[in-house]
Each structure stands twice: as C-alpha cells, then as structure tokens.
Amino acid sequence: MEKMWAGRFAQELAKEANDFNSSIHFDCRMYRQDIKGSIAHAAMLGRQGIISPEDTAAITEELGRILEDLECGRLQFDMECEDIHMFIEKVLTERIGEAGKRLHTARSRNDQVTLDLRMYLRDEAAEIIRRLKKLTGILCDQAEHYADSIMPGYTHLQRAQPVNFGHHLMAYAMMLVRDMDRFADAVKRMNVSPIGCCALAGTTYPTDRVWEAEQLGFERIALNSLDGVSDRDYCVELLSAIAVCMMHLSRFSEELILWSSWEFQFIELSDAYTTGSSIMPQKKNSDMAELVRGKTGRVYGNLMGTLTVLKGLPLAYNKDMQEDKEAIFDSVDTLKLCLDIFAPMIETMSVKEDNMLKAAKEGFINATDLADYLVKKGSSFRSAYKLVGGIVGDCIRSHQVLEDLPLADYRKYSDLFAEDLYDAISLKTCMEKRISEGGTSPASVKKQIAAVRERISG
User: What residues are labeled active site?
Assistant: First the structure.
C-alpha cells in the first residue's frame, strides 16, 4: 500500500519497519474523534474559502457515512494503514476522489494527532467522573446505613479510638471527591485546541483556528504552534490523576482484604466478587480487591514511562510521542475496569457489626476518653495521660478492660473518679460525643454524607 508521504521515497518501507511504525492497532479507538475533528476542519476550510462549498459538502457527508459504517460494522479497520488518521483519509479519498485529498489542507498529522487525543481523553475523563460519582454514591448509601456501627479506628494498624463504619467509608468518599476534582481540573488544561498549528510552524492559509476550536468544544487555542504539537502535559496530568485515584482504590482494597480475613472478620465480600482455591476447599479469596491493588502498580508504571519518554525530547514533534497512547489508553481502561468492579463489590458486601464491636471493646480504644474525663474534672491533660497509661498497663496485666474495672480500683489511682466515668468511657458515648466538624459522631457523618451527595448531584 502506498503511503500518503511516499513521494519523497524511492524504496518501499520494509514490512517489519511498517509494522514497528504503525499505530492503527491501538489508535483506531479514536475514530470518532478523528472524524469529528475532520468534519470541523472541512467546515472551517469551506467557511474561509480555502476549499469549495461543493468539496466541503462532499467531505462532510462522506465522513458522516464512514462513521456510520464503522459504528455498525459495515466498514472494518485496515491494519495495513499506518494510523487511524491515514485510514480515514484513505477511505474518504477512495469514496469521493479528489475532494477527499483536499481535507488535509492547512493541517498536519502532528496537530491532528494531538487534537484527536485531547478530544478522546476529554471524553474518557467525563466517563471516569461518572463512574466515580456512582461509586461515591454507593459509599454514601452504605455509610448512612452503618453510621451507628461501632468499630475500632486504627493508627499504625493498632486499635486507637472508636469510630463508626460509616465514618470510615466516608473517608474514602472524600478521596474520590478529590479525584473528581483532579480529573475536572486536568480537563481544563487539556481543553486547548492544537489544530492549525500544523507540523510545527502554523500555515500560510487564512484559517480560523478559534472558530474551528469552538465547533469542537474547546475553550481556547494553543497560542504557540511549537508547543501546540509537542505538548503532552495533559497526558501526564491525566496519568497522574489516574495514579492517585488508583492509589485510593488500592488503599481501600487493602482494608477490604484485611477486613475479610479470618483474623478480622469485619466484612464478607459477595461470592460474586471473590474466588476459591484450586486445592483448599475452605478458601474464599478477595481476588477482585487484590487485582485492583496489583493493577495500581501497572498504572504507576505508565505514568513513569510517559514522563521518561518526554524528558529528553527537543521541540517539536518526535515519533517518541507515539508511545504516549498505549500508556494513557491502558491507564484509562484499567481505572474504568476497576471502578466498574469496585462499585458492585462495595454495594453487595456484608458487614459483621458484632465482630467490629467486639474488636472495639478489646483494644482500650476509650483510653483517650478516660483521660479527657479526668481533664474535665480538673486534671491537666499530661497528668491524666500518664495516669491512664498506668491504668491500661495494669488492666493488661490483670486481663481486664476499662469498662469492667471496679470504681474502687479506679479511686486507688485518683479521687477524681466517680460513678459517671462508666458512661463517659462507653464506646457509644465515645463515638457520639465526637461532635467536632468532620468527627465520627453519627450526626457528623450524616453531615458529611449530605455534603458529598450535594457535590456529586450535578
């Protein structure tokens, strides 16, 4: 097959070189964006009198038919073509002849490639945000249901203070809200049109870049043609946002895996999102959560790989930039896949409230509240802290817990202790009285849920 750029060359490209150079097997996914961009470009060329109204109409109508044929399967991608851009132009020219050859006036593949990629990633970012909203909504529903369910909160993986399960879930909801903001923010800088920058220096034709950009939903145009064709910051930024989001899912996965273990037994994941063992019939493995955790490393690799590709490139376009697509496509696909699994996995999990409460009772997680009790009775916090530390140590040695220690024993440590201490250190009280903004009281958790639901309602 003759290449579009074949005029300069006396010898045909070697097959192995053609295969190595080709990108259609992965960039064919951008066919909608390529056709949409070409329709806008043809309209601009016609509007500016660069091509005739007849050619504009023929190009526009046939591009619409090509899109329809691809969507319904009547037209298949030709993997002998170098890329999706050459494929669309080849089919167009075969169908309408000379008029099709005029489409590429006043543009280069360099600005066309980054135009398509920006449009594609803009669409995919919107899809990711939609999925994040769905998962966040499920977290809000579960958090509301378990806003009174006491569990131990942890620091250093040691039982620390009582929280409720809804509060714990809402911590992840807050992470996902920040992820949505990151994706929306990345789109703001992505939404800049490079079309008309051409190969690197612009064009001598009287184009209207602003009008063309507006037709394609861009907020503004690239103001420097060298930067317009060589900028891949938007890929790096989106990869970074994906990596952060995957990190959040991975942290959540780690907790789901721990909570599902026999040692914790805080939750049980649905059979629909777990697997068994080929040799141990008793096993129920959290494989979906483990895969999310594992795929996070893959996404990190895509980010680092892209940064490494770009770090030594001179201006303007270099073929190295073809390496951006497989990395960003893989990361987008991976995150969407993980979100699609995560949402129903969280929605269908069973929560073992009794086991959570039992764990909370055994960890002295009301010790801070006991110290606060003494402070409210007139002690300094540091003195109360030291005294309560001694009580906890003695309880550990005598196999007792703070709630069961007799008042007479408490009064051996301090005369400030009275009968009301037992209400002050009950786990329910400890949780419900943490009324500060963002705290773990059920009332606070419900405020968090309302705020997040408002955030994702748009």
Answer: 156, 277
